[in-house]
Amino acid sequence: MRHLSVGSLQRMRTLTFGLTLVRHGETRYNKEGLLQGQAIDCPLSETGLQQAEAAGCYLKDVTFSSVFVSDMLRAQQTAATIMKHNSSCSALQMVCDPLLKEILLIFQSFGIAEGGRLQDVKEMAKAAGQSFPGFTPPGGETKEQVKERVKEFMDKMLQQIGTEHDRWEDETSISAPPDTSPVEGKADDGVRDIPIHALVVTHGAYMCVAVRYFVEELHCALPPGSDRAHMFSLSPNTGLCRFILTMREEHERFKVSGMSCVFIHRGDHIKQ
To answer: 244: exposed, middle or buried (C-beta count within 10 Å: 0-12, 13-18, 19+)?
Structure first.
């Protein structure tokens, strides 16, 4: 029997799709520098509503085929506003998923709870010789636990997209980052010719963990000249991150076979 070497080309059926992550708009707690994880489910502030409107106007001509949202109010308000401006979303259902919740913050043993000052936690992290975000006092949700939520959501999304769409192609290649259209600073960068495109509205700390997972474990290709420190930093309210993924079917499960980042933490819409 003839065996193929590791470097041999393999024929596989692949499907390419876009993924745009959006952080929710500003809340009063964001503005005042207070902790807000899962326990405090507050609405967007007036500024946050304006940011969501700006994001919706910015993305109004970008085609989406599915919308996934954290089940927290601030994320749902942001997603609903974006969808209101986008004709491709008119027939789509917002899928609320608790796997997209913000990191659980529990600091009671330190005398700090959600609603307390963010600066206090930063000082605790510094005293422990750790960075923030990334510092987890006893009782809080660890980065590993959040990463498991990210992985579970990604798997759920892949299975749904792989089952719902029939734009599979036979491709002869070794797993590699998918090609993207030129980045021109436009709202549809990377997804101009990609009809399958998921919008995911979630939270800042959650996105930090997700992006690190994409880069370190899914081997996501970075944009030219990108700075890793910036990649792993906190996205601004309604900041946008876009990725192009290729998946294939293995043992009756859909898995990522290639991934590239188009842009990270874009906030053009809130600067205008």
So the answer is: buried
Choose, from 3, 26, 85, 102, the residue flagged as catalytic.
102
Active-site residue, from 24, 197, 203, 269: 24
Q: Copy the structure tokens of residue 168.
A: 């599979």
For the whole model, what pTM was predicted? 0.85
| 165-216 pLDDT per residue, tens | 987 777 654 455 566 667 889 999 999 999 999 999 999 989 999 999 999 9
Q: Which long-range contacts (CB under 8 A, 24 or more apart) does 28-35 make?
A: 29/115, 30/237, 33/117, 33/118, 33/119, 34/115, 34/116, 34/117, 34/118, 35/105, 35/107, 35/112, 35/113, 35/114, 35/115, 35/116, 35/117, 35/118, 35/121
Count of CB atoms situated within 10 Å of the CB of 98? 11
Q: For residue 114, indicate whether it is catalytic.
A: no
Buried b (16+ CB within 10 A) or exposed e, 4-38: eeeeeeeebebbbbbbbbbbbbbbbbbeeebbbbb
Within 8 A by CB and 6+ apart from 233, the residues are 208, 265
Cβ partners under 8 Å of residue 130, min gap 6: none
Residue stretches of the chain with pLDDT short of 70:
1-11, 34-35, 37-38, 105-122, 125, 128, 131-139, 171-181, 272
24 annotated active-site: yes
Angle between helices 204-216 and 143-164 (to 10 degrees): 80
Question: For position 159, what pLDDT does the model report?
Answer: 97
